Amino acid sequence: MNTFEKSQKIKNNDLKATENLENFIATIEKNNPSINAFLEINKESALSQAKKIDEKIKNGLKIGSLAGLVFGIKANINVEDRIISAASKTLENYYGSYDATVIKKIKEQDGIIIGMCNMDEFAAGSSTESSYFGATENPAAPGHIPGGSSGGSAAAIASEMCDITLGSDTGGSIRNPASHCGVIGFKPTYGAVSRQGLLDLSMSLDQIGPLSDNVSGISMALDTIVGYDETECTSLNQKFPSFTDIATQGHEKLQEDVKDMKVLCINQFKDVTDEHINKIIDESVDKIGDMGAEVVESSFDYIDLCLPTYYLINYVEFFSSTRKYDGRKYGHKIEDVCGEEVLRRIEMGSYISQQEFSGKYYKKALQARSLIRNEINKLLSDVDLILGPTVPKLPHKIGEKLEPMEMYAYDVLTVIANLAGIPAGSMKAGEYNGIPVGLQLQAKPNDDDKIIKTMAALESL
Q: Considering the domain 3-460 in this protein, what is its CATH number?
Protein backbone atom coordinates (compact mmCIF):
# COMPACT_ATOMS: atom_id res chain seq x y z
CA MET A 1 0.00 0.00 0.00
CA ASN A 2 1.54 3.32 -1.06
CA THR A 3 1.10 6.61 0.80
CA PHE A 4 -1.76 7.84 -1.40
CA GLU A 5 -3.68 4.55 -0.96
CA LYS A 6 -3.12 4.73 2.79
CA SER A 7 -4.41 8.33 2.89
CA GLN A 8 -7.57 7.21 1.05
CA LYS A 9 -8.09 4.42 3.61
CA ILE A 10 -7.80 6.94 6.46
CA LYS A 11 -10.23 9.35 4.76
CA ASN A 12 -12.71 6.51 4.16
CA ASN A 13 -12.43 5.52 7.84
CA ASP A 14 -11.01 2.09 6.90
CA LEU A 15 -7.84 2.92 8.83
CA LYS A 16 -7.79 5.21 11.88
CA ALA A 17 -5.25 8.06 12.02
CA THR A 18 -4.53 6.91 15.59
CA GLU A 19 -3.88 3.36 14.38
CA ASN A 20 -1.44 4.59 11.69
CA LEU A 21 0.37 6.72 14.28
CA GLU A 22 0.45 4.02 16.97
CA ASN A 23 1.98 1.53 14.50
CA PHE A 24 4.79 4.02 13.82
CA ILE A 25 5.28 4.80 17.53
CA ALA A 26 5.69 1.07 18.22
CA THR A 27 8.31 0.81 15.41
CA ILE A 28 10.15 3.90 16.69
CA GLU A 29 10.25 2.59 20.26
CA LYS A 30 11.59 -0.74 19.02
CA ASN A 31 14.12 0.42 16.40
CA ASN A 32 15.13 4.02 17.09
CA PRO A 33 17.47 3.23 20.03
CA SER A 34 19.75 1.32 17.61
CA ILE A 35 19.16 3.44 14.47
CA ASN A 36 19.13 6.94 16.04
CA ALA A 37 17.04 8.44 13.23
CA PHE A 38 14.91 10.54 15.61
CA LEU A 39 16.41 12.92 18.18
CA GLU A 40 13.06 13.70 19.79
CA ILE A 41 9.55 12.25 19.66
CA ASN A 42 6.42 14.25 20.50
CA LYS A 43 4.11 11.32 21.20
CA GLU A 44 1.44 13.06 23.28
CA SER A 45 0.74 15.99 20.96
CA ALA A 46 0.82 13.67 17.92
CA LEU A 47 -1.73 11.30 19.51
CA SER A 48 -3.95 14.23 20.47
CA GLN A 49 -3.88 15.46 16.85
CA ALA A 50 -4.59 11.95 15.46
CA LYS A 51 -7.65 11.65 17.73
CA LYS A 52 -8.97 15.01 16.47
CA ILE A 53 -8.56 13.84 12.86
CA ASP A 54 -10.44 10.59 13.56
CA GLU A 55 -13.20 12.63 15.22
CA LYS A 56 -13.47 14.94 12.18
CA ILE A 57 -13.70 11.96 9.81
CA LYS A 58 -16.30 10.25 11.98
CA ASN A 59 -18.44 13.40 12.00
CA GLY A 60 -18.09 13.98 8.24
CA LEU A 61 -16.19 17.25 8.67
CA LYS A 62 -13.72 18.62 6.11
CA ILE A 63 -10.20 17.20 6.45
CA GLY A 64 -6.87 18.10 4.88
CA SER A 65 -5.13 16.22 2.06
CA LEU A 66 -2.53 14.76 4.46
CA ALA A 67 -5.05 13.70 7.13
CA GLY A 68 -3.48 11.08 9.41
CA LEU A 69 -0.15 10.81 7.57
CA VAL A 70 2.88 10.89 9.88
CA PHE A 71 5.89 13.16 9.28
CA GLY A 72 9.45 13.31 10.63
CA ILE A 73 11.18 16.70 10.35
CA LYS A 74 14.91 17.39 9.99
CA ALA A 75 16.16 19.13 13.14
CA ASN A 76 17.07 22.36 11.30
CA ILE A 77 13.47 23.23 10.34
CA ASN A 78 11.52 25.23 12.93
CA VAL A 79 8.61 23.45 14.63
CA GLU A 80 7.01 25.41 17.45
CA ASP A 81 7.87 24.11 20.95
CA ARG A 82 10.23 21.39 19.65
CA ILE A 83 14.02 21.38 20.13
CA ILE A 84 15.52 22.74 16.89
CA SER A 85 19.12 21.77 17.59
CA ALA A 86 20.48 21.31 14.05
CA ALA A 87 22.17 18.33 15.79
CA SER A 88 24.61 20.73 17.50
CA LYS A 89 25.50 21.38 21.13
CA THR A 90 25.21 25.08 20.15
CA LEU A 91 21.39 24.79 20.13
CA GLU A 92 20.86 21.72 22.34
CA ASN A 93 18.30 23.62 24.45
CA TYR A 94 16.77 25.85 21.77
CA TYR A 95 12.99 25.46 21.41
CA GLY A 96 11.40 26.64 18.17
CA SER A 97 9.24 29.72 18.84
CA TYR A 98 7.24 29.40 15.59
CA ASP A 99 6.44 27.00 12.75
CA ALA A 100 8.38 27.24 9.47
CA THR A 101 6.10 27.89 6.47
CA VAL A 102 6.37 24.22 5.37
CA ILE A 103 5.31 23.07 8.86
CA LYS A 104 2.32 25.42 8.88
CA LYS A 105 1.24 23.97 5.54
CA ILE A 106 1.60 20.37 6.73
CA LYS A 107 -0.42 21.11 9.88
CA GLU A 108 -3.10 22.93 7.84
CA GLN A 109 -3.52 19.74 5.76
CA ASP A 110 -3.81 17.60 8.94
CA GLY A 111 -0.38 15.98 8.63
CA ILE A 112 0.90 14.70 12.00
CA ILE A 113 4.45 15.59 13.12
CA ILE A 114 5.94 12.79 15.20
CA GLY A 115 9.41 14.21 15.88
CA MET A 116 12.74 15.72 14.86
CA CYS A 117 15.25 13.75 12.75
CA ASN A 118 18.99 13.46 13.24
CA MET A 119 21.39 15.13 10.79
CA ASP A 120 24.97 16.26 10.31
CA GLU A 121 25.69 19.19 12.63
CA PHE A 122 24.27 22.36 11.01
CA ALA A 123 23.83 20.26 7.82
CA ALA A 124 27.59 20.42 7.23
CA GLY A 125 28.37 16.87 6.14
CA SER A 126 27.52 13.86 3.98
CA SER A 127 27.36 11.03 6.54
CA THR A 128 25.30 12.09 9.63
CA GLU A 129 28.35 11.14 11.72
CA SER A 130 28.99 14.74 12.82
CA SER A 131 25.76 14.97 14.86
CA TYR A 132 26.41 15.98 18.49
CA PHE A 133 23.82 13.31 19.39
CA GLY A 134 25.70 10.44 17.73
CA ALA A 135 25.71 8.89 14.26
CA THR A 136 22.65 7.46 12.53
CA GLU A 137 22.73 3.81 11.40
CA ASN A 138 21.79 2.90 7.81
CA PRO A 139 18.82 0.49 8.09
CA ALA A 140 19.31 -0.64 4.48
CA ALA A 141 23.04 -1.33 4.90
CA PRO A 142 23.76 -1.92 8.62
CA GLY A 143 27.17 -0.75 9.77
CA HIS A 144 27.37 1.84 6.96
CA ILE A 145 26.63 5.56 7.03
CA PRO A 146 23.10 6.56 5.92
CA GLY A 147 24.54 9.54 4.02
CA GLY A 148 23.85 13.14 4.94
CA SER A 149 23.19 15.66 5.95
CA SER A 150 19.52 14.51 6.10
CA GLY A 151 20.58 11.02 7.23
CA GLY A 152 18.01 10.78 10.02
CA SER A 153 15.22 11.73 7.59
CA ALA A 154 16.27 8.98 5.15
CA ALA A 155 16.85 6.36 7.86
CA ALA A 156 13.42 7.07 9.41
CA ILE A 157 11.81 6.21 6.05
CA ALA A 158 14.04 3.19 5.38
CA SER A 159 13.16 1.74 8.81
CA GLU A 160 9.41 2.44 8.36
CA MET A 161 9.14 4.90 11.27
CA CYS A 162 6.86 7.37 9.44
CA ASP A 163 5.15 8.03 6.09
CA ILE A 164 7.13 11.06 4.91
CA THR A 165 10.06 13.13 6.18
CA LEU A 166 11.34 16.59 5.33
CA GLY A 167 15.02 17.27 4.77
CA SER A 168 17.04 20.19 3.45
CA ASP A 169 19.29 19.95 0.38
CA THR A 170 22.18 22.38 -0.10
CA GLY A 171 24.50 20.21 -2.21
CA GLY A 172 22.73 16.84 -2.16
CA SER A 173 21.69 16.51 1.48
CA ILE A 174 18.33 14.91 0.58
CA ARG A 175 19.42 12.91 -2.47
CA ASN A 176 22.66 11.52 -1.03
CA PRO A 177 21.02 9.78 1.99
CA ALA A 178 18.04 8.75 -0.17
CA SER A 179 20.54 6.93 -2.41
CA HIS A 180 22.43 5.25 0.45
CA CYS A 181 19.23 4.21 2.28
CA GLY A 182 17.36 3.03 -0.81
CA VAL A 183 14.47 5.50 -0.53
CA ILE A 184 13.18 8.40 -2.67
CA GLY A 185 14.37 11.95 -2.05
CA PHE A 186 13.42 15.10 -3.94
CA LYS A 187 15.03 18.55 -4.17
CA PRO A 188 12.54 20.94 -5.83
CA THR A 189 13.43 23.84 -8.12
CA TYR A 190 15.16 26.56 -6.08
CA GLY A 191 12.45 28.88 -4.72
CA ALA A 192 9.55 26.46 -5.30
CA VAL A 193 9.39 25.69 -1.55
CA SER A 194 9.66 28.42 1.07
CA ARG A 195 12.86 28.39 3.12
CA GLN A 196 11.29 30.56 5.83
CA GLY A 197 12.03 28.84 9.15
CA LEU A 198 14.99 26.78 7.89
CA LEU A 199 18.32 27.31 9.67
CA ASP A 200 20.65 28.42 6.84
CA LEU A 201 23.65 26.44 5.71
CA SER A 202 24.09 28.37 2.45
CA MET A 203 21.09 30.54 1.65
CA SER A 204 21.63 30.77 -2.12
CA LEU A 205 21.73 26.96 -2.39
CA ASP A 206 19.41 25.61 0.38
CA GLN A 207 16.09 23.99 -0.49
CA ILE A 208 13.60 22.01 1.64
CA GLY A 209 12.22 18.79 0.15
CA PRO A 210 10.55 15.46 1.01
CA LEU A 211 11.68 11.83 1.41
CA SER A 212 9.41 8.79 1.23
CA ASP A 213 9.52 5.14 0.18
CA ASN A 214 7.14 5.67 -2.76
CA VAL A 215 6.51 8.38 -5.36
CA SER A 216 2.97 9.16 -4.14
CA GLY A 217 4.41 10.12 -0.72
CA ILE A 218 6.82 12.55 -2.39
CA SER A 219 4.01 13.95 -4.56
CA MET A 220 1.57 14.49 -1.71
CA ALA A 221 4.26 16.30 0.27
CA LEU A 222 5.19 18.48 -2.72
CA ASP A 223 1.55 19.41 -3.36
CA THR A 224 1.47 20.71 0.22
CA ILE A 225 4.82 22.49 0.58
CA VAL A 226 5.35 23.92 -2.93
CA GLY A 227 3.95 27.42 -3.40
CA TYR A 228 4.55 31.15 -3.05
CA ASP A 229 5.41 32.62 0.35
CA GLU A 230 5.44 36.43 0.48
CA THR A 231 7.56 36.32 3.68
CA GLU A 232 10.48 34.65 1.87
CA CYS A 233 12.61 36.53 -0.64
CA THR A 234 13.56 33.58 -2.91
CA SER A 235 9.99 32.24 -3.18
CA LEU A 236 8.67 31.74 -6.74
CA ASN A 237 5.23 33.15 -7.48
CA GLN A 238 3.94 30.66 -10.03
CA LYS A 239 1.63 27.71 -10.51
CA PHE A 240 2.77 24.09 -10.24
CA PRO A 241 0.72 21.10 -11.42
CA SER A 242 -0.80 18.51 -9.06
CA PHE A 243 2.08 16.12 -8.48
CA THR A 244 -0.26 13.58 -6.86
CA ASP A 245 -2.46 13.48 -9.98
CA ILE A 246 0.66 12.80 -12.04
CA ALA A 247 2.03 10.09 -9.75
CA THR A 248 -1.27 8.22 -9.44
CA GLN A 249 -2.42 8.31 -13.07
CA GLY A 250 -1.76 4.63 -13.78
CA HIS A 251 0.94 2.53 -15.40
CA GLU A 252 -0.13 2.91 -19.05
CA LYS A 253 -0.52 6.70 -18.98
CA LEU A 254 2.86 7.07 -17.19
CA GLN A 255 4.57 4.87 -19.79
CA GLU A 256 2.87 6.90 -22.54
CA ASP A 257 4.29 10.13 -21.06
CA VAL A 258 7.83 8.71 -20.79
CA LYS A 259 7.66 7.46 -24.40
CA ASP A 260 7.66 11.07 -25.63
CA MET A 261 10.73 12.05 -23.56
CA LYS A 262 14.33 12.60 -24.53
CA VAL A 263 16.83 11.81 -21.76
CA LEU A 264 20.51 12.61 -21.51
CA CYS A 265 23.41 10.67 -19.99
CA ILE A 266 26.61 12.63 -19.35
CA ASN A 267 29.94 10.89 -19.99
CA GLN A 268 31.82 12.66 -17.20
CA PHE A 269 29.28 11.46 -14.59
CA LYS A 270 30.31 7.90 -15.46
CA ASP A 271 34.02 8.77 -15.40
CA VAL A 272 33.93 9.83 -11.72
CA THR A 273 31.70 6.92 -10.58
CA ASP A 274 32.52 3.37 -9.41
CA GLU A 275 31.96 0.84 -12.19
CA HIS A 276 29.57 -1.28 -10.04
CA ILE A 277 27.32 1.75 -9.63
CA ASN A 278 27.51 2.63 -13.34
CA LYS A 279 26.37 -0.87 -14.27
CA ILE A 280 23.23 -0.56 -12.09
CA ILE A 281 22.48 2.94 -13.43
CA ASP A 282 22.82 1.71 -17.04
CA GLU A 283 20.13 -0.89 -16.32
CA SER A 284 17.73 1.86 -15.12
CA VAL A 285 18.48 3.95 -18.20
CA ASP A 286 17.76 0.88 -20.37
CA LYS A 287 14.36 0.51 -18.66
CA ILE A 288 13.51 4.11 -19.57
CA GLY A 289 14.73 3.44 -23.13
CA ASP A 290 12.56 0.32 -23.26
CA MET A 291 9.53 2.49 -22.44
CA GLY A 292 10.26 4.36 -25.66
CA ALA A 293 12.22 7.40 -24.42
CA GLU A 294 15.05 8.58 -26.65
CA VAL A 295 18.40 8.21 -24.83
CA VAL A 296 21.28 10.48 -25.91
CA GLU A 297 24.80 11.13 -24.59
CA SER A 298 26.78 14.33 -24.21
CA SER A 299 29.65 15.94 -22.29
CA PHE A 300 29.78 18.37 -19.39
CA ASP A 301 33.28 19.81 -19.35
CA TYR A 302 33.06 21.69 -16.06
CA ILE A 303 32.67 18.80 -13.62
CA ASP A 304 36.03 19.56 -11.97
CA LEU A 305 34.85 23.10 -11.29
CA CYS A 306 31.68 22.10 -9.42
CA LEU A 307 33.00 21.02 -6.00
CA PRO A 308 35.41 23.96 -5.47
CA THR A 309 32.72 26.41 -6.63
CA TYR A 310 30.13 24.87 -4.31
CA TYR A 311 32.37 24.76 -1.23
CA LEU A 312 33.70 28.31 -1.67
CA ILE A 313 30.14 29.68 -1.78
CA ASN A 314 29.10 27.38 1.07
CA TYR A 315 31.98 28.48 3.34
CA VAL A 316 31.29 32.20 2.91
CA GLU A 317 27.51 31.97 3.28
CA PHE A 318 27.74 29.54 6.22
CA PHE A 319 30.19 31.84 8.04
CA SER A 320 27.78 34.73 7.52
CA SER A 321 24.73 32.74 8.72
CA THR A 322 26.47 31.54 11.90
CA ARG A 323 27.31 35.04 13.21
CA LYS A 324 23.97 35.05 15.06
CA TYR A 325 25.10 32.08 17.22
CA ASP A 326 27.25 34.29 19.45
CA GLY A 327 25.94 32.90 22.75
CA ARG A 328 23.77 35.92 23.54
CA LYS A 329 20.37 35.04 22.10
CA TYR A 330 20.71 31.43 20.93
CA GLY A 331 22.39 28.81 23.10
CA HIS A 332 26.18 28.60 23.25
CA LYS A 333 28.70 30.48 21.11
CA ILE A 334 29.09 28.21 18.08
CA GLU A 335 32.91 28.27 17.89
CA ASP A 336 33.17 27.20 21.54
CA VAL A 337 31.14 23.99 21.22
CA CYS A 338 30.83 22.94 17.56
CA GLY A 339 32.45 19.93 15.89
CA GLU A 340 35.45 19.79 13.60
CA GLU A 341 33.68 20.14 10.21
CA VAL A 342 31.49 23.08 11.31
CA LEU A 343 34.56 24.85 12.72
CA ARG A 344 36.50 24.16 9.49
CA ARG A 345 33.74 25.80 7.42
CA ILE A 346 33.49 28.80 9.77
CA GLU A 347 37.26 29.37 9.69
CA MET A 348 37.47 28.97 5.90
CA GLY A 349 34.47 31.28 5.45
CA SER A 350 35.97 33.87 7.78
CA TYR A 351 39.29 33.74 5.90
CA ILE A 352 37.73 34.03 2.44
CA SER A 353 35.40 36.82 3.60
CA GLN A 354 38.31 39.08 4.56
CA GLN A 355 38.51 42.23 2.43
CA GLU A 356 41.65 41.18 0.53
CA PHE A 357 40.31 37.73 -0.40
CA SER A 358 36.56 38.08 -0.97
CA GLY A 359 36.92 39.47 -4.48
CA LYS A 360 39.54 36.90 -5.34
CA TYR A 361 37.62 33.80 -4.20
CA TYR A 362 33.92 34.42 -3.55
CA LYS A 363 33.29 36.57 -6.63
CA LYS A 364 35.21 34.09 -8.78
CA ALA A 365 33.05 31.29 -7.34
CA LEU A 366 29.89 33.23 -8.24
CA GLN A 367 31.21 33.67 -11.81
CA ALA A 368 31.96 29.94 -11.96
CA ARG A 369 28.43 29.19 -10.73
CA SER A 370 26.98 31.27 -13.61
CA LEU A 371 29.13 29.33 -16.05
CA ILE A 372 27.97 25.97 -14.60
CA ARG A 373 24.32 27.07 -14.59
CA ASN A 374 24.49 28.25 -18.22
CA GLU A 375 26.17 25.04 -19.32
CA ILE A 376 23.61 22.81 -17.53
CA ASN A 377 20.71 24.84 -18.95
CA LYS A 378 22.26 24.48 -22.41
CA LEU A 379 22.45 20.68 -21.96
CA LEU A 380 18.83 20.63 -20.77
CA SER A 381 17.57 22.91 -23.55
CA ASP A 382 16.55 20.11 -25.91
CA VAL A 383 16.14 17.17 -23.50
CA ASP A 384 13.61 16.47 -20.74
CA LEU A 385 15.90 14.90 -18.13
CA ILE A 386 19.52 14.26 -17.24
CA LEU A 387 19.96 10.74 -15.82
CA GLY A 388 22.91 9.37 -13.90
CA PRO A 389 24.18 8.12 -10.55
CA THR A 390 23.20 10.09 -7.43
CA VAL A 391 26.44 9.36 -5.55
CA PRO A 392 29.68 8.19 -7.22
CA LYS A 393 30.68 5.70 -4.51
CA LEU A 394 29.18 3.36 -1.94
CA PRO A 395 28.76 4.53 1.69
CA HIS A 396 31.71 3.94 4.00
CA LYS A 397 31.48 2.14 7.32
CA ILE A 398 30.43 4.20 10.35
CA GLY A 399 33.55 5.42 12.17
CA GLU A 400 35.90 4.92 9.19
CA LYS A 401 38.23 7.93 9.02
CA LEU A 402 37.94 9.96 5.80
CA GLU A 403 39.91 13.05 4.84
CA PRO A 404 37.73 16.15 4.23
CA MET A 405 38.28 15.92 0.45
CA GLU A 406 37.24 12.25 0.44
CA MET A 407 34.05 13.19 2.29
CA TYR A 408 33.39 16.10 -0.11
CA ALA A 409 33.79 13.71 -3.08
CA TYR A 410 30.40 12.16 -2.23
CA ASP A 411 28.81 15.44 -3.43
CA VAL A 412 30.35 15.79 -6.89
CA LEU A 413 27.20 14.72 -8.78
CA THR A 414 24.62 16.32 -6.49
CA VAL A 415 26.02 19.87 -6.07
CA ILE A 416 25.32 20.60 -9.75
CA ALA A 417 21.53 20.84 -9.24
CA ASN A 418 21.99 23.31 -6.35
CA LEU A 419 24.47 25.46 -8.27
CA ALA A 420 22.10 25.53 -11.26
CA GLY A 421 18.89 25.90 -9.16
CA ILE A 422 17.24 22.98 -10.99
CA PRO A 423 15.01 20.20 -9.56
CA ALA A 424 16.55 16.78 -8.89
CA GLY A 425 15.42 13.53 -7.33
CA SER A 426 16.97 10.21 -6.34
CA MET A 427 15.29 6.82 -6.35
CA LYS A 428 16.61 3.30 -5.77
CA ALA A 429 18.04 1.76 -8.95
CA GLY A 430 19.32 -1.48 -7.43
CA GLU A 431 21.87 -2.85 -4.97
CA TYR A 432 25.54 -3.79 -5.02
CA ASN A 433 26.60 -6.27 -2.31
CA GLY A 434 23.32 -5.54 -0.50
CA ILE A 435 23.94 -1.76 -0.48
CA PRO A 436 21.37 0.49 -2.26
CA VAL A 437 22.40 2.54 -5.30
CA GLY A 438 20.43 5.65 -6.35
CA LEU A 439 19.47 6.90 -9.81
CA GLN A 440 19.46 10.71 -10.04
CA LEU A 441 17.01 12.51 -12.33
CA GLN A 442 17.49 16.24 -13.07
CA ALA A 443 15.28 18.58 -15.11
CA LYS A 444 14.95 22.20 -16.22
CA PRO A 445 13.86 24.75 -13.58
CA ASN A 446 10.11 24.26 -12.88
CA ASP A 447 10.02 20.90 -14.70
CA ASP A 448 9.76 19.08 -11.36
CA ASP A 449 6.73 17.20 -12.74
CA LYS A 450 8.85 15.43 -15.39
CA ILE A 451 10.99 13.89 -12.65
CA ILE A 452 7.88 12.76 -10.74
CA LYS A 453 6.38 11.32 -13.94
CA THR A 454 9.50 9.29 -14.76
CA MET A 455 10.01 8.09 -11.19
CA ALA A 456 6.37 6.96 -11.05
CA ALA A 457 6.74 5.17 -14.41
CA LEU A 458 9.86 3.33 -13.16
CA GLU A 459 8.12 2.52 -9.87
CA SER A 460 5.12 1.09 -11.77
CA LEU A 461 7.39 -1.45 -13.47
A: 3.90.1300.10
